[in-house]
Amino acid sequence: MKAITLNTLKSMKEQGHKIAVLTCYDSTFAKVANQAGIDALLVGDTLGMVLQGHDSTLPVTVEQMTYHTASVARGNEHAFLIADMPFMSYSSPEHALKNAAKLMQAGAHMVKLEGDLWLTESIKQLTQNGIPVCAHIGLTPQAVHVLGGFKVQGKTEEQAKHLLETAQQLAQAGAAMLLLECVPSNLAAKISKSIKIPVIGIGAGAETDAQVLVLHDMLGLNDKPAKFVQNFMVDKTSIKEAIESYVAAVKDGSFPALQHQYIF
Ligand code: KIV
């Protein structure tokens, strides 16, 4: 199968074809997810929670992200590979460039940064140096202590306006992809329609261009799954089948269903 690139994902958005994304942290799961037809893999800093057992993503280091990115890259066949920049690894544009280079050299095709309008300069710096950026806005788990918990964002009119403008300005600054986490479905739909770059949603309704779930959540390994999670392992006899079923549900629009969405 032909390698999936940023251009492939952009044309999928233009043609209205949904993009299926999953987090992945090692080589074996990368191979299985590729065989199951996944479009993109995200080496998420959620590895701090699902692999290391922390209660947030804050303890994850650049060295750990580099190690897992290289592991996933070795098992990856054709999927587009995004790697998370961990907490405090992009506190200035220069710092961001130095650390993003490590992830790209480990095999990532794009890096993801969480934040707000303050990401603008780092996005420009990385993009000018040949590093595509995914900007992660809405619920940004690295800022959990500022946000006061893992809460839905953009519920008031003022917050929604701010998120919409932030998305547009970050796209204008050069972000090649956007990730929206835990925002009302109607806001996510409006943001996705208002920018040309692919928008990945998690807890952001059915109208984003792509969906992502944390691998361990969609395999039913989380005791307290969030509202937006579906366990795709139910009635399946293998992980490959579960991922195939996730990919099919994203592509035909049956996931996320209404019960997985924040509607206000
Ligand atoms: O780190 C991660 O796995 C993420 C997901 C929540 C999308 O950013």
From TrEMBL:
Annotated 3-methyl-2-oxobutanoate binding sites: 45-46, 84, 112
UniProt cross-references to Pfam families, sorted A to Z: Pantoate_transf (PF02548)
Protein EC: 2.1.2.11
Signal peptide: none
Keywords: Cytoplasm, Magnesium, Metal-binding, Methyltransferase, Pantothenate biosynthesis, Transferase
Cofactor(s) required for function per UniProt: Mg(2+)
Principal subcellular localization: cytoplasm
UniProt binding sites for Mg(2+): 45, 84, 114
SUPFAM superfamilies per UniProt: Phosphoenolpyruvate/pyruvate domain
Binding note for cofactor: Binds 1 Mg(2+) ion per subunit.
Pathway connected to this protein: Cofactor biosynthesis; (R)-pantothenate biosynthesis; (R)-pantoate from 3-methyl-2-oxobutanoate: step 1/2
Enzyme class: transferase
Assembly, per entry: Homodecamer; pentamer of dimers.
Function per UniProt: Catalyzes the reversible reaction in which hydroxymethyl group from 5,10-methylenetetrahydrofolate is transferred onto alpha-ketoisovalerate to form ketopantoate.
Family stated for the protein in its record: Belongs to the PanB family.
Record-given protein name: 3-methyl-2-oxobutanoate hydroxymethyltransferase
Species name: Acinetobacter puyangensis
